[in-house]
Design a protein that fits this description.
It catalyses: a phosphate monoester + H2O = an alcohol + phosphate. Pfam families: Metallophos (PF00149). One of its GO terms (cellular component) is extracellular region. This protein is an alpha/beta fold. It has one domain (28-323): Purple Acid Phosphatase, chain A, domain 2 (4-Layer Sandwich), CATH 3.60.21. It is built from 11 helices and 15 strands. The strands form 2 sheets. It has an 8-stranded mixed β-sheet with strand order 1-6-7-8-9-11-10-12, with no helix packed on it. Strands 5-4-3-2-13-14-15 form a 7-stranded mixed β-sheet. Strand 10 and strand 11 form a beta hairpin.
């Protein structure tokens, strides 16, 4: 497995995007863990607005928290560039909304990203291109991929093609190159995901996607993900599903499994003001801007939400032995 920061990785990425077909098996990548096996990362979503809507203030607080945590990397849950993704690999929006905003030394680590629905409104292939890494080496984005980070394995999932409404909306352009025919794409993705989850021996299994499975925010639940994704995640003892899409911070527990639903989509524009009722166990919901931190060891995971002022507004600790006693 290639490291994203190595020359070998660059060659592998070029191979992935320009040689392998759209329905190739999920690609695996390695992020070297710390010597003590611990893993610290931040999660941010729905952010790329040229610093506006408090994006710059959130970035400042992320930098401060990154210093405290000895950060390993950053996870982006999609909708990376508003309102309609990138126009191409030379779009100045990449610098204006990413490189020139997240400037703290602690954030000069690898960023692992998925596409959101707004990214698909532009040139989706531009965000996937290895040419962006020549502009900013931190950037790493694919539709779906697996990241082995020692104590945890991450399964990044391309959720936008699951949503029927985007295919029925003739008023907006979506870049479906590499996705059509849709049903074949989804069938292959679910098959490969289930196979990789089943054979994973990782201590912690984390799924990452753009759309929420469970949410009391503006967009609410995603019925397509509830139907197709939840059974796969639960059957394979996935510990948490992390997403963006709803511009908020929230922590929801399942009522029938240990699976946690964690939303970190508050990187810029927020304050929707509408909250939906749910029968799920909502531990926390915050409608404003902020981000999430995650600290993992072999036995424990601590996650916390921070607002635009850097205040810790919610934190939670989960222990592996209590989540999945048989593992």
């Amino acid at each position: 497995m290639a490291s994203p920061s190595s020359p070998l990785h660059s060659a592998a990425i070029l191979c992935i995007y320009f040689v392998l077909p759209a329905f190739a098996e999920l690609q695996r990548f390695q992020h070297q863990p710390k010597h003590d096996g611990s893993l610290n990362f931040l999660v941010i979503g729905d952010w790329g607005r040229k610093g506006h809507y408090n994006q710059s203030l959130v970035a400042t607080q992320m930098g401060k928290m990154g210093d405290k945590l000895d950060l390993d990397f950053v996870v982006s849950t999609g909708d990376n560039f508003y309102n309609s993704g990138l126009k191409g690999v030379n779009d100045p929006l990449f610098l204006q909304s990413f490189s020139n905003i997240y400037t703290a030394k602690s954030l000069r680590k690898q960023w692992y990203s998925v596409l959101g629905n707004h990214d698909y409104r532009g040139n989706a292939l531009a965000q996937l291109s290895p040419l962006l890494r020549k502009i900013d080496r931190r950037w790493f984005c694919q539709r779906s991929f697996i990241l082995n980070a020692g104590v945890a394995e991450f399964f990044f999932i391309d959720t936008t093609p699951f949503m029927r409404k985007y295919f029925n909306n003739s008023n907006r352009h979506y870049d479906w190159r590499g996705v059509l025919p849709r049903q074949k794409y989804l069938k292959t993705l679910l098959k490969d995901l289930e196979e990789e989850l089943r054979k994973s021996t990782a201590r912690w299994k984390i799924a990452v996607g753009h759309h929420a499975i469970r949410s009391i925010g503006h967009h609410g639940d995603s019925p397509e993900l509830v139907k197709h994704l939840v059974p796969v995640l639960k059957a394979n003892n996935v510990d948490m599903y992390i997403n963006g899409h709803d511009h908020c911070l929230q922590h929801i527990s399942s009522t029938d499994s240990p699976l946690l639903y964690l939303t970190s989509g508050a990187g810029s524009k927020a304050w929707r003001g509408d909250v939906k009722e749910t029968h799920f166990d909502v531990k926390f919901f915050y409608d404003g801007q902020g981000f999430m931190s995650v600290q993992m060891t072999e036995n424990d995971t601590n996650f916390a939400f921070y607002n635009v002022f850097g205040e810790k507004i919610h934190h939670w600790k989960v222990t592996k032995s209590t989540m999945h006693p048989s593992i």
